[in-house]
Batch of 3 targets.
Target 1
Amino acid sequence: MSKQPVLHLFPKLASASQALAEWVGSGLRRAVEDHGQASAALPGGSTPGPFLVALAKQDLPWKFITLMPTDERFVPADHPRSNERMMMTCLAPALANGARWVSFAPDGPVAGPESLAAGIALAIEPRLPLSVVVSGMGDDGHIASLFPGDDRLADPAHLWPVVAAAYPRGHEPRLTLSPPVLRASRQIALLFSGLRKQQVFADALLARDKPVALLTDASAPLNVFLSPD
């Protein structure tokens, strides 16, 4: 059953990003205290950059924390279309203090996205359920690499792997955390800015026709950090 999201509205993306970093930091600290380890899946792209920088500055027990992307294009980490290099640059202080990074990028030749996804899943499975998931949202309502038009999203009986290959129309092949993994996280947040995306999100809650609506069906409430700029 879907739940009403918890909205955190800020005048600027910078203040939303800082508040989200503190919210995520609190969740990770509590997870380490309760479970001895914590894990977080984080978004790439331009909007999350300030949040990632602010998160990496948090005073956390980083050596007990595993970080990973929510998704990635099926390209090498040094490819111009990869998010990984940007993410690792933003998160450099956390990584320098012992945080583990689970890469979604191919390290040498692999048979294809499905083969790479299976290998990544082996690194993630011991850390499930994830402590925190933070997702961005596209103008079309996609989250991670779960895009409108993916027939699997319309099939409630579909058996998802931990990490799935995705082939969105008009885009490179991608790897993405699957809906069951995203929705099972102990804490879930969404970060976006702009009036257009606010309308996309509001419409998705009513029509439930976009992937972002999946996050309202999670076991934890969806916390939305947003700004109009």
Target 2
Amino acid sequence: MPILDRVAADLPVTLKTASYALAENDTGTEIQFDSAAAVTADLPPVNLAPNGYNVILRNVGAGTLTVTPFGAETINGASSESLSGGDWVWIRNDGTEWKSVASNDFEIADGSITVAKLADAAKPYDFSFVAGYDQDMVREDIAVQNYGELVIARSLTIEGEVGYIDTPATGQAAIVDIEKNGASIYSSKPQFAATANTLTAGTLSTTSLASGDRLTFAVTQVGSTEPGEGVRFTLKCRLA
């Protein structure tokens, strides 16, 4: 059962077919609006509604439902909240302002945290590689060679890369590469410009990875005067 249905299961429900001004005794209820035309749900003044007053407003009609605070009062700092057909919002009075406690994407408190945003935050799936370190992680010259291998376990989308070189290359850039199944994922490879510690991003020609794909991290060019030492490279990916 969806979270809202569990929350609202024991709440009394009333149906409105036109605009409605909420009253004090509407707290702890669900009000459904069923109208083909645009309607409003007008909230009472915060100072006249009990602290903790809460109500679920659900639009079950085809018209737009606009939730409107009293006068210059706000909902989460906004002058109103608009609900399309099928949308709902859970409104609460915190004593000073109306708050949208939850809505279709389960916004919490001030609306800054949502299930959708939490899911997005869980999607990054990055891979890190190093080059130019000995077995004790002491910096040493990088060389033109492969430095890392792995097999992809799930479908991913490549978003870019970041990198840092402790001792910059001089004379020419140090260039790195990621190969997918033996072919570069770049049309223009990432590089550390001569004397630069930070990475200049490459241009991706491949952005999709599937379970079983093989990745190789390699240095393909080193500095001509100073090769460069201590490369850290992260391929930024996201769960597809």
Target 3
Amino acid sequence: MTVCMFAFVTNTSAQFVNTGNSQKLKNSSNSGSLLSNMTTDNYARLTFSYNPVKLKWEHDQDMWDKTLPLKHGFTVGVIGGVNLTNKAPLYLEYGLNYQGAFGKYKADGGAIRTNLHSLNIPLNLAFRLSFNDNKISITPYIGLNGRINLAGSQKVDYFDNRYYDDQKLDLFDDSTTSEEGVGKQAFKRFQIGMNLGVGFSFSAFYLGVGHTFDFTKIANWAEADYEAKYGVTSISIGVNF
């Protein structure tokens, strides 16, 4: 995607400058005009997202969906875009957001509840195509995401014919987890992942969809042969300013 962006910009500029005849000059001028009419102003936005989330385990996915349920989440954050060249609408996006995720598995006589709280630091390359006097824009993006896990817990009440007395386990403290619950290995505090998505702006209103998938594992319990990565889909609305 990044290569295509640069190829498009380079090809358009080269045609505009180096054309050999008047017809080519006219055609390249039209292409250059299309890019030159697009805004290269910096931007920022405030967003709110609904997040379907998933812990993707290497083994026994069905078992872990019940033991550590995480299904839904939400994100609130800000992101800004800085133009990289005044000849094309190519941007570096950076931001910060808070993300909360939660899930519940119910069984006869009890339930397991899990929650996870994180900070995300996205760093994306975006290409903003604008139309209608820059009132409408389409912005595909690709980039990296850094996730800092702040807190996470699992609460277990009467479950599987055993009574836990509303036991609460810290997912990041191996001294408070139990063999009967999460296991003795704690979750990891930091993951690196990849962002991929597209946003649509209509004047001040923003609508976007994207996905973040981790390169590094949030759980890596080698002794028990259990490994998991975290995946987050984002359906976003926001305000441009």
